[in-house]
Amino acid sequence: MRIGVAGPVGTGKSSILATLCRELAGELAMGVVTNDIYTDEDARFLRSAGVLPTERIRAVETGACPHTAIRDDISANLDAVEDLEEEFGPLDLVLVESGGDNLTATFSPALADAQLFCIDVAGGGDVARKGGPGITGADLLIVNKTDLAPHVEVDVDAMVADARAARDGLPVLALSKHDPASTAELADWVRSVLARHRAGALVPTDPGPMAPHSHSHDS
Q1: pTM
Q2: 213 band by pLDDT with thresholds 50, 70 and 90
Q3: CA distances in angstroms from 217 to 41, 115, 214, listed in the order given
Q4: How many alpha carbons lie under 13 Å from residue 155 in its C-beta half-sphere?
Q5: How far, in Å, are 58, 71, 143, 214 from residue 78 at the CA level?
Q6: To the nearest whole percent, how much of the chain has pLDDT over 70?
C-alpha cells in the first residue's frame, strides 16, 4: 500500500513520516520516497533520524513544482517506489512525501492508495477554513504541532472543529510528536487503512484538483 503525505512547507510532513516509521517499522516492511525540488534534504533528515535502514529511503528531486511530480507526471515517484519494491519486497507500506506545496496539492490515485494532508497550528488558526482539496478531501487531515498552540495563540479545539466542518465526516487528527496518544492514534489509522487494502476494500479516491476559478479583467 502507498500512502501520500502532502501539505504546505513547514507543516511537519517529514516529522510525520519519522513518527510513522518509529511506530510501525517493527511490525511492517516499509519504504519511504521523499520529494524536494532541488535537494534531498527530507531524505537526509529521515536517514539521520535512524527510523529505517538508509537504503529504504529514496529521494526524488522534482526540479519543478512538487505538485506536478505527485499528480501530473508521477513517473519519477513510481520508479522510486518500484525500485524499493523490487529490492526489498514484498513491502507492506511505502510512504510518499510530497515536496512542500500549497493547499491545492493532492496525489494522483495512480500513485497513492490513500492520502494524508498536513496543516499545522503555526500556520494560523484559520487555515482549515481556507479549504482546498487536500483539506476537504484527503483520507486523513492532520492538524499538526498542537504543542505549539499556546505559543502562537491558536485554539486547537476551534481549529479542529473548523476542519471537521470542512470535511463532511472525514477524519481529523490533532497531532503532536510529543503526545504518545496522538501518535498512537495516527499509527492505528494507518493499520486500519492497511487492513482495508489487504481485504480489497480500499478504493483510492481523488480529492480533486484546484477548483475552477477566474479573475476579472475589467480595468
Answers
A1: 0.92
A2: very low
A3: 41, 36, 9
A4: 5
A5: 12, 11, 28, 33
A6: 95
